[in-house]
Amino acid sequence: MWRVFFTSAVVAVVVRSAMNWCDSGKCGHFGAGGFIIWDISGGQEDYSYQELLPVAIIGVIGGLLGALFNQLTLYITKWRRTYLHKKGKRVQIFEACLISLITSTVSFVLPLLRKCSPCPELETNSGIQCPHPPGTDGNFVNFYCSKDNEYNDLATIFFNSQDDAIRNLFSAKTFHEYSAQSLITFLVMFYSLAVVTFGTAVPAGQFVPGIMIGSTYGRLVGMSVVKFYKKLNVDEGTYALLGAASFLGGSMRMTVSLCVIMVEITNNLQLLPLIMLVLLISKAVGDFFNEGLYEEQARLKGIPLLDSRPKQVMRNMNAKDACKNQKVVCLPRVSRVVDIVSVLQSNKHNGFPIVERGQNGESLVIGLILRSHLLVLLQSKVDFQNTPFPCGPGILNRHNFSDFVKPASSKGKSIDDIHLTDEELGLYLDLAPFLNPSPYIVPEDMSLAKVYNLFRQLGLRHIFVVPRPSRVVGLITRKDLLLEEDGNTATTELQSTSVRSILSTSCKLSFSLLRRNAQN
Amino acid sequence: MWRVFFTSAVVAVVVRSAMNWCDSGKCGHFGAGGFIIWDISGGQEDYSYQELLPVAIIGVIGGLLGALFNQLTLYITKWRRTYLHKKGKRVQIFEACLISLITSTVSFVLPLLRKCSPCPELETNSGIQCPHPPGTDGNFVNFYCSKDNEYNDLATIFFNSQDDAIRNLFSAKTFHEYSAQSLITFLVMFYSLAVVTFGTAVPAGQFVPGIMIGSTYGRLVGMSVVKFYKKLNVDEGTYALLGAASFLGGSMRMTVSLCVIMVEITNNLQLLPLIMLVLLISKAVGDFFNEGLYEEQARLKGIPLLDSRPKQVMRNMNAKDACKNQKVVCLPRVSRVVDIVSVLQSNKHNGFPIVERGQNGESLVIGLILRSHLLVLLQSKVDFQNTPFPCGPGILNRHNFSDFVKPASSKGKSIDDIHLTDEELGLYLDLAPFLNPSPYIVPEDMSLAKVYNLFRQLGLRHIFVVPRPSRVVGLITRKDLLLEEDGNTATTELQSTSVRSILSTSCKLSFSLLRRNAQN
C-alpha cells in the first residue's frame, strides 16, 4: 500500500512541475490542459436539512437507472457474444462504425431541432460569457443560432467534448441555462447510446459517460429544487454533481473509492456527507435488483469471482460437499509419461495431488503439481528418464525459473499442442522437484463457510480436502510466531526444511521454484 | 466497511443540522465552536519544485524526532511499570499532579521571561488583529505586555488552548509572528513535557500534542524558507502543517490514514502531494530506528502483534519448528474433571485438542476446546456426569450462549478461582458439544511463512499442526465455491454436517456455539 501511496505522491509532484514548466509555453500543444477537475467552487458551500429529501430522490433514481444499465448491458453483451461476434471480426468493425455514425448524427441533428434561447443576464465577475466566443470552450454554445445573444442549450451538452459538457452541467451560478426538455432529450439519447456502446470493440470507457448521465438527471432534480425551495441557497450544479455520484454508485456499486474520486475531481470537501449519502442510497437500491457492472461482466466472462462473504447455505455444508461432484485424480511421484498425458487428456483439472509410498508402506500426499507445470515438463522433455526411480541431483539445473511462468498475453499451453513419440511416452518423469510441497489443507468436515474465507483471504486456487487427522503434532499460537530476532535464530539455523526429509531420496529442491509454488 | 461509511455520513449530516440549529443561539454554551478545522486557506495554494528540499528536511526531522519520542516513551513506560507503579495507586495520582504542576508553571513562567514585540503591520482584510482584544481567541496574545500595540509571541503558543495554539501556528499571512528563539524554547519544553506525560494515569492523548510539536519545528523551517526563497509565494503556516504531518508520521508511522486526517482537518486538497511526501519520508526515517509508537507500546504490554510480513528466517522453517518447544496437551472427549483441572493447572495453554477413538479403534482429532470454555464448564458444574460415556441429548439447553462470552472489562477466569469438592472431581465431563469441530490445520512440514500468512490474514489464535495426510479426499477450486443460487441447493439440503456423523453418538451440536467457535 505505501508503495502505491509513494508512487502517487511522486506522480503528483512530477506532473505539477511539468505543468508549471509547460505554463511558460515551452511544450507546444502540450501546454494547454491540466488536471480534469470540474471545479464547483463558487456554487453551494453548505446544505440544509430540507435538501436531504431531493438528495435521497437522486440516490433512488441513480440506483434504478444504474441497475437498469447493468441489466441492459448484460443482455446486450450476451447477445453480442452469442450471435454477433461469431460472424467474424469484420462484423465487430462494422458494428463500431455504425454506432459511431449514429452517435455523430444524433449529436449534430438533435440540437438543430431545438429553438435558440435568449442569453440570461449573468454576473459580470463570474467569468461566464453568453454565448461564449468562437474558438473557446465553455457554457452557452451559440451553434447555429442567428442572433448574437442567443444560445442552443442542447448543443451546450451534445456539441462539446464530454469534459466540457460535464463542466457545463456542474457549473454554478448558471440558473435556467438548460430547459427540462433538453435535459430529458439528452438523458434518453445518451443513456441509450451508452448502453449500446458498452462492450463494442471500441474502448469507450464507462466513467465519464456515467458522470454525463448522472449529472443530467441530477441537474433536472436541481432545477425543481431551485423552483420549490426558493429561500435556500441552492445551486443546480451541485445537484448535477450528486447525480453523477448516484449513477456511478448505482452502476458500479463502489462506495468509498467513488467518494474519494468525486471529492478529488471536484476539489470540494464540503459536500462530502451528501455525496456519501447519495452513494449509499444508490448502491442499496441497485443491490436490490442485481450486482455491480464489473461483477456482472466478470461473471459473464467465466472469471470465478468470490463474494466477500460466504453464502448462507455454506454454513450447513462442509468441505467434502463442495468437491463431491469431481473425482480427485492423483499421480504417483514418479509417473510414466503416457500416464501423465492420459490424465491431462481425460480431465480439465488444474492441479493434481502427488502421492508416494512412505517408509512404512503407507501412502503419503507429498504435494500438488499444477497442470501448467506438467505441460512445461512434457514439452521440454529434458527430465524424462528411463527408470521408475526417483531422479538424481541436479535436475533443476536443466530448468530456468522463467520456463514455468505463464506469458501474460497467452491462453496457456494445451495438452493437444504437445507431440510425443511412442518412445518418449514409455519413459518416466520424477515430479518431486516441481511440486508445491505444502498446499493448504482442510479436514473434510470443516464448514464450507470457513473454507470459503480461507480462499478469499489468502487468494487461493486449490485446497486439499483431507481426512480428519489422527493426531496433533503441535499447536501454533500467535506467540510462537513472534520470533525474537536474537533469541530463536540459533535453534532456527539448525533446522532443515523437513520437506527435504520427506522427499528424502536425493532431489534438491530449488527454493525459487518452491517459493513460486508457495504462492499457489 | 460500508456500515462505517454510512454511519459517518449520517453523523456528518446530523452534526451539521445541529450546528445550524445552534447558530441561532438556542443552545446556550453549546452554541460556540464547531468542527476542529485548522483552516489554512488564504495561505499557500501552490508549491514549486524548489520547495521539495525544505519539505524533505521537514520529513527527516519528523522521522528523527518521532523515533526519539517513541524510544524515550518506551524507556519511561518501562521504568514506570518496573519501579513507580508497584508502589501503589497513590504514587500514580501524585505523579499526575506533579506533572500538571510542572506544565502549568512552565506555561506561565516561560512567556514572562520573553520580551514583548511590537505588532507588525497586517493586512486589514485578513481579519487578524494585533494584539487580539481581551476575551477573544486568536493570534498575537497581549499577555502582560504594557503597551497596547505589543504582543508576547511565546504566550501566543503557550498561553492558549492547544486548539488555538495550533490555529495560530498554522495561520497564514502572519510572517515573523514568532521569533525563532521562542519557537525553539517552546519545542524543547513541550517535547519534554509530552514525553513525560505520555503513559501517566491521565488520558492526555497523543494526537494534538504531536501536531503541536510538529507544527513548531515546521514553522521554524518555514521561517528560513521565507528568508532564503524570497521570490516564492511561501507561507510559514503551510510549513507548520507539513511539520505536524511529519511528526505524526515519524511517531505513529501511519501513512494513508494520517494523510486523510491532515487533509480533513485543514480542508485543503492542494497540498496533498506534499503531505504524502513528508509522511513517507518521516516514516522511512523513523522505521530505520524503531517501530511505531503504538506497536512499541502494544509489544510492551505483551500483546502478540504480528507484522504484516513473515520474517525472512521463517521461509526456511516449517510449522513443526514453531511449536517444538511446547508439548501438545490433548484431552479425551469424555474427561474426568480431576484430569481437566490438573491439565489446566499444569500449563498455560489457551486451547487443547480433543481426541477420540474412531470406529476402527484409531485415534481421531475431533476438535479444539478453549481454556476459557473449560473454565466456564468447570464453574457451572451442570454438565458433570457420572458415567464415562458420551452424554445424552439436550445438554446444551443448560447453557446460555452468553455464558461463554468473556466480559470485556475482566481479565478472564482463572483455574485457581474455581473450587470443586472431591466428589465433583471424580465426575466426568463430555466436551464434544463445546468444542470447535474444525480448527484450521496445516501439515507439519508447511513453510512457516505460509503458516504466518494464514494467521495474519484470517486473524487466528490457534492452528493445529498435523502429520502429512495419507490421502486427498477432494480438491476444492474457486469454481466449486460458486454455488448457483438455484442449481446446487438441492444437493445441499440433503447434506447434514458430517461433524455430526463423526460425533455420531448422540450429542446435538448447538449451531450458535459452533458458529462462535468457528470464529476461533
From TrEMBL, chains A, B:
SMART domains: CBS (SM00116)
Localization: Membrane
Residues that span the membrane, as ranges: 52-72, 183-202
Cited Pfam families: CBS, Voltage_CLC
PROSITE patterns assigned: CBS
Major site of localization recorded for this protein: membrane
Coiled-coil annotated residue ranges, if any: none
InterPro entries listed in its UniProt record: CBS_dom, CBS_dom_sf, Cl-channel/antiporter, Cl-channel_core, Cl_channel_pln, ClC
Membrane protein topology class: Multi-pass membrane protein
Highest taxon listed in the record's lineage: Eukaryota
Residue intervals of the CBS domain: 435-491
Key word Transmembrane helix present: yes
Signal peptide: 1-17
GO molecular function: voltage-gated chloride channel activity
Keyword Transport among UniProt keywords: yes
GO CC annotations on file: chloride channel complex
Entry keyword set: CBS domain, Chloride, Chloride channel, Ion channel, Ion transport, Membrane, Repeat, Signal, Transmembrane, Transmembrane helix, Transport, Voltage-gated channel
Similarity remark: Belongs to the chloride channel (TC 2.A.49) family.
Name of the protein in question: Chloride channel protein
Naturally occurring in which organism (per UniProt): Aegilops tauschii subsp. strangulata (Goatgrass)
